[in-house]
Write a structure and sequence with these properties.
- It is a single chain.
- Helix content is about 30%, strand content about 20%.
- By secondary structure, the protein is an alpha/beta fold.
- Strand 10 and strand 11 (about 150-155) form a beta hairpin.
- Helix 1 (about 15-30) runs parallel beside helix 6 (about 160-170) and helix 6 runs antiparallel to helix 7 (about 175-185).
- The termini are far apart.
- The model has no long low-confidence stretch (mean pLDDT about 95).
Length: about 200
């Protein structure tokens, strides 16, 4: 059997719950293809912006490399954008990872690490200005549910991460697997990356 795709889902204080667990639900429903590692600066409980804790089983010093890096958004991204330990880990992982992905304002952390320079990207529409401020070398797309540029995948706010995760399953495994996962989750998958009513709702276009 082929080796499973290793997903590193990054936890930090103040992460957004659905940014993190929405995509992980999708990968978890395809666990014959994916294995998820919850990674943080140190092992242990990590409090979300909603006060509910996740649990990091692996730390940044672990030394292993991953196929797919997933960075969620949330209020805590502002602090992580100046966290040298996480930024250096992301840069190191970028050398070997097949895909770097972010949900919501997680794009601001990737941008702060310089990993979106020269790429197209999107982010949360209500909090668009902050991620944009992290990189003037990124082509920020105002109207997009998610954006794919080579091996960088960035999604809009919160629930958009699930659409992007299904797209990643489609790219990395198959369309049939992504459709099966969406059905099992009873989730209406938005397969159109340009379908984004929130850009106008929040005054970006």
């Amino acid at each position: 059997m082929k080796e499973k795709i290793k997903v590193a889902a990054v936890l930090f204080e103040g992460f957004e719950l659905l940014d993190f667990y929405g995509p992980l639900e999708m990968f978890g429903l395809a666990d014959e293809f994916f294995v998820v590692y919850q990674v943080a600066e140190k092992i242990g409980p990590v409090r979300s912006s909603a006060g509910i804790c996740g649990y990091a089983e692996y730390d940044l010093a672990d030394g292993r490399s991953y196929d797919l890096i997933l960075v969620p958004g949330g209020a805590g991204t502002r602090q992580q954008a100046t966290n040298p330990a996480l930024l250096e880990w992301l840069r190191r992982q970028a050398h070997s990872a097949r895909i770097l992905a972010s949900v919501c304002t997680g794009a601001g952390v990737l941008a702060a690490a310089g990993l979106l320079d020269g790429y197209r990207a999107t982010t949360n529409k209500q909090s668009f200005a902050w991620p944009v401020s992290q990189s003037l070398e990124t082509e920020w797309v105002k109207q997009a549910r998610w954006v794919e540029d080579r091996n960088r995948y960035t999604s809009a706010g919160i629930s958009a991460g699930m659409d992007m995760a299904l797209r990643l399953i489609e790219v990395l495994v198959s369309a049939e697997t992504a459709e099966r996962v969406a059905d099992e989750a009873e989730y209406e998958w938005n397969r159109n990356p340009s379908h984004d009513p929130f850009a106008s709702r929040f005054g970006l276009i």
